[in-house]
Structures are given as C-alpha cells and as structure tokens.
Amino acid sequence: MIKAKKSLGQNFLIDKNILEIITNYTDISNRIILEIGPGTGNLTSYIIEKNPKKIVVIEKDNELANSLKNKFNNKIKVVNDDVLKIDETKLFDEKVIVFGNLPYNISTEILSKWIINLKNNFWFECLVLMFQKEVADRIIAKFNTSNYGRLSIICNWKLNIKKICDIKPESFSPRPKIDSSLLFFYPKKNYIKIDNPNDLEKVTRIFFNQRRKMLKKPYNQLFNGDQKVLEKLKINLNLRPQNLSLETYYKLAFEYGKLRG
Ligand code: SAM
C-alpha cells in the first residue's frame, strides 16, 4: 500500500463520475496524451480506456513511477522526473492533449512556465487541468473583480479558458481541505503579440505589486512618465491595477518591450 506524500501534493482522485467527466470532455481516441502527476494511475486507467494513440506520463515520485511501470507495462511511457525541469516540446513531434490533477503547491508554476515559454506553434491541442478552486477562480477572473490579477492576465494571453466543474474534497483520497476546479484551456487563434513574454511577466508583477494603490507609481516606474503610451492606450492613472482590461495589459507589455528597444 502506497502512503500519500503531502510534500508532493498527493491527493488521488477516487470519484468515478469525475474521472468520467475528465476523460469525456474532449475526444482523445487516437490522440497523443501527456499526463502530469499520474500518481497511482487512476486517471491514467480511464484515459487508456478511451484508446489514445500514445500516453506519456511525468511523475516525480520514484516509488509511484516504478509502480506505474509495473501496473501498465508497455501501455504507457513513464518519465520519472520533475515536470518543472522538463522541456515538453522535445518529447513529441505531434500536438498533444495534456491532462493533470496537478500538485497544488506547484500548479501555477507549471502553467506559467508553459504559457511564458509558448512559441507561436503550440505544442498542445488543449489542456484539461485540475486546480484548487481558489486558484482556478483567479485564473478565470474578469477585470474589475478582486480575483483579477497576474495569473488571469498571463493565463488568458494565448489561451481560451473554460471551467468544466467544481470538485468536492470527498472525490479524493486523502481528502484535501479545499475544493477543486477543473479547467479546459485551448489556444487562441489571435492574440496580441509581445516580443519578449518576460515583459508581460514584469509589467504585471510591477503593476500588481501594490494592488490597492493607484496606477501612477508602477506606471512611472516602468514607463518613466511617458505620455504617448498613456494617450494611445487611454489609461487613467487614478485607477487601480484591477481596473485595466486584459488587452490593456498585453498592449502595455508590448509598449514596454518597444521602449526598452
Ligand atoms: N493524477 C493522480 C490522481 O488524480 O489520482 C494524482 C494527482 S496528485 C494531486 C499529484 C501528483 O503529481 C502526485 O502523484 C505527485 O507525486 C506528482 N508530482 C508532484 N510534484 C511533481 C513534479 N514536480 N513533477 C511531476 N510530478 C509531480
């Protein structure tokens, strides 16, 4: 019997209805699947039943990775590594569908890494990912709300995002203390080009550093009081960071890149 490790965010999904919802949401027959953090393989078994072309899983826990190899034999390829250290684009030469009941402590880090590193060619068709509900609420938050912030802006840049459902603690073993949400991400056809994605990272970091304060200070810090950008983007510096739309932040990051040359 494998004991769940808290440090690796191990809460295993045991609810058959939820496992069905996850694997029925998008057609995976004959597709290439990447699963992040397969754990004891509960979700993996449901994926296999839908007849994908190939399944690759990335699991950091050595004990679980070995038991997955024994359990599934040659039905899946097990990569025993840390997802934060892997370059997923090098694992495949076709687009993949990504599943993950992500370890809560690193879920936003995984997602930000994927989005910031995305080139114009997406390496995935879509992502079906589980987050703690509070994080999912921040990812899908609209502007002018208190949940809106860096995570919403970065995640919505190149991806469309839909909530599939919320999930109660009873669906997991061991039970987490919090609710979870399942989100679906798929590439946008059109998005505002930003030459260096780290500019978006920086602009949102500086703007949301003091989210209750007016925009004047962070704007001047980044743009040195430049009036042209202000007029072009019609920004009122007496507003607060959460009052600027997604598009305004993408345009600000673009302008910031231009200014830096
Ligand atoms: N998918 C399984 C399920 O639904 O039953 C387990 C999900 S559990 C929330 C998260 C899984 O991610 C665990 O198996 C854990 O060992 C693994 N994990 C944690 N950190 C990881 C990392 N950095 N890279 C890859 N896997 C990781």
Write the layout of secondary structure elements.
Elements: E1 12-13, H1 16-24, E2 32-36, H2 42-49, E3 54-58, H3 62-72, E4 77-79, E5 96-101, H4 107-117, E6 124-132, H5 133-139, H6 150-155, E7 159-167, E8 172-173, E9 180-187, H7 197-207, H8 216-223, H9 227-233, H10 246-260
The structure holds S-adenosylmethionine (SAM).
S-adenosylmethionine (SAM) binds at residues 8-13, 37-40, 42-43, 58-61, 64, 82-84, 101, 103, 106.
Describe the structure.
There is one protein chain. This protein has 261 residues and is an alpha/beta fold. The chain folds into 2 domains: 6-187, Vaccinia Virus protein VP39 (Rossmann fold, 3-Layer(aba) Sandwich), CATH 3.40.50.150; 197-260, rRNA adenine dimethylase, C-terminal domain (Helicase, Ruva Protein, domain 3), CATH 1.10.8.100. It has helices at residues 16-24, 42-49, 62-72, 107-117, 133-139, 150-155, 197-207, 216-223, 227-233, 246-260, and strands at 12-13, 32-36, 54-58, 77-79, 96-101, 124-132, 159-167, 172-173, 180-187. The strands form 2 sheets. It has a 7-stranded mixed β-sheet. A two-stranded antiparallel ribbon has the order 1-8. Helix 1 (16-24) crosses helix 2 (42-49) and helix 7 (197-207) crosses helix 10. S-adenosylmethionine binds at residues 8-13, 37-40, 42-43, 58-61, 64, 82-84, 101, 103, 106.
Question: Can you describe this structure in just a few lines?
Answer:
With 261 residues, the protein is α/β, with parallel strands linked by helices.
